[in-house]
Design a protein that fits this description.
mainly alpha; Amino acid/polyamine transporter I
Length: 471
């Protein structure tokens, strides 16, 4: 079989978008956000809102791209059709080697943190980090095996786990907000005092660092683009799923942040301590404080959430190297373009992506063990920084070349989206110039390695080189 089948409707597609967005990031980022803004909850809420509003125009632009271009793997399609084939290859290489495998490793690592908490393991113990490294690798292996042997199961599992991971968010975002802000108002002075004591007073740069941190929680919609050619009536349904899912997530995230940061002084201190290092313990404490003993077991939903997004990552990244191979480029493109005759899944592409994911897992473990010395290489920051940098040329070229569009769609929308992507990219420089330089050098080195396999050869016959368009 030479092409992936169209099999997903609007509901399943929306679950893909929300499922990729709502991962484990929202469960550990509140601590980092508080840490970055010196414990100021108001600034923390502002960071979430600004981060969402800066990214929303980018999502909107991609919803417009989805209605015009459709070949194989959305992000590569759009970069290739709008900027050029070489840039499309760079975008595809980024997704295949950096973005999706790195996200796969990060989600596994975060999920292992909740698992360690569930079994009563304390951070700082001698076996804590090795345990998490082993469990992370185990989770990655399990999701790969399931996707490899029974590819229909992961799609259904994604729908179920998307609903499951929304349960703790909605509960804390509604009940938690009411109890924290209304019923337990007497605790607010203690919470504020705790936040002030833990604040790091870094000045104006703290807000920029917090905004850039929210990018990881709003991350994931990009991965859903890989399924554009597998959606029924994708030019109509995919843009709706993309924008609807993203808007829902912004609202839920803001409410959850308010609820989790107002649960109790103890949970707030745990969540914030060390920039979120004790996120699992603090989150569990907050849920237990609001919901009693039952709240403690909500950590199981967080683990399910992690496994769900891990499963979705495996689904998405299996298409990345395949998309390059279908364009007759990339490493071992003859093998990477093969689909399993029974399952219609690019297993070779998936196998390579998982292997790269294990390399990134080792990078995470090395960073946690402080093998990089005093420098903290934040993998989520690295690939988000790279992604927003890649967006700017796409939006600019779209405004220049799409002369068939009216002024608003051709100029206003791309300019706003460019401003949003450029702002998010700049926050990394404003937050830490040292980290931004290291991330830039790392990206350039990996891009140069990828260029070894670039081939300017004719594209496969089943790929429409001009792009399918709706005028």
């Amino acid at each position: 079989m030479q092409a992936l089948k169209r099999q997903h409707g609007l509901f399943v597609t929306t679950c893909f978008v929300v499922g990729f967005l709502v991962g484990t990031g929202i469960f550990f980022l509140p601590g980092r956000i508080l840490y970055e803004v010196d414990g100021n909850v108001g600034l923390g809420v502002m960071a979430w809102v600004i981060g969402g509003l800066m990214i929303a125009p980018c999502v909107f632009m991609f919803s417009q791209f989805a209605a015009r271009y459709e070949k194989m793997h959305g992000f590569v399609d759009y970069a290739e059709a709008i900027v050029g084939r070489r840039y499309g290859y760079l975008a595809g290489w980024f997704f295949a080697v950096m973005y999706q495998p790195a996200g796969y490793a990060i989600i596994a690592w975060i999920t292992s943190g909740f698992t360690a908490t569930l079994v009563g393991m304390e951070p700082g113990s001698e076996v804590y980090l090795p345990f998490r490294f082993f469990i992370s690798g185990f989770f990655m292996a399990v999701t790969f095996v399931v996707n490899y042997l029974a590819p229909k199961v992961p799609v259904k599992f994604n729908v179920v786990t998307t609903v499951a991971r929304m349960i703790p968010l909605v509960l804390m975002g509604t009940v938690g907000v009411l109890i924290g802000l209304v019923v337990n108002r007497s605790h607010q002075p203690e919470v504020i005092e705790t936040l002030n004591l833990l604040g790091n007073a870094r000045g104006y740069t703290s807000l920029f660092a917090a905004i850039s941190a929210t990018a990881f929680a709003f991350n994931g919609w990009q991965a859903a683009l890989a399924f554009n050619t597998e959606v029924k009536d994708s030019k109509r349904k995919f843009p709706i799923a993309l924008m609807g899912g993203f808007g829902l997530v912004i609202v839920v995230y803001v409410l959850y942040f308010i609820g989790i940061t107002h649960a109790s002084p103890e949970s707030t201190a745990l969540i914030m301590q060390g920039g979120g290092a004790n996120f699992a313990q603090g989150t569990r404490h907050a849920f237990e404080y609001i919901f009693g003993r039952a709240g403690g077991w909500l950590v199981i939903f967080m683990i399910i959430s992690g496994l769900g997004i891990l499963n979705a990552c495996c689904l998405g990244m299996s298409r990345a190297m395949y998309a390059l191979a279908k364009r007759n480029t990339g490493p071992m493109h003859d093998r990477m373009s093969e689909l399993d005759a029974k399952t219609n899944v690019p297993n070779n592409s998936m196998f390579m992506a998982v292997g790269i994911g294990y390399v990134w897992l080792f990078v995470i473990f090395s960073n946690t063990m402080e093998w990089f010395g005093s420098f903290s290489f934040s993998l989520p920051d690295f690939y988000n920084y790279s992604f927003f940098g890649l967006l700017v040329p796409i939006f600019v070229c779209y405004a220049i070349r799409q002369k068939d569009l009216h002024f608003v769609k051709r100029i206003i929308f791309p300019v706003v989206a460019t401003a949003g992507a450029a702002f998010m990219f700049t926050t990394y420089w404003l937050g830490s110039t040292r980290h931004a330089i290291v991330y830039s050098v790392t990206f350039i080195c990996l891009a140069l390695v990828g260029w070894i396999w670039y081939k300017d050869t004719p594209i496969s016959a089943d790929i429409n080189i001009a792009g399918a368009q709706n005028e």
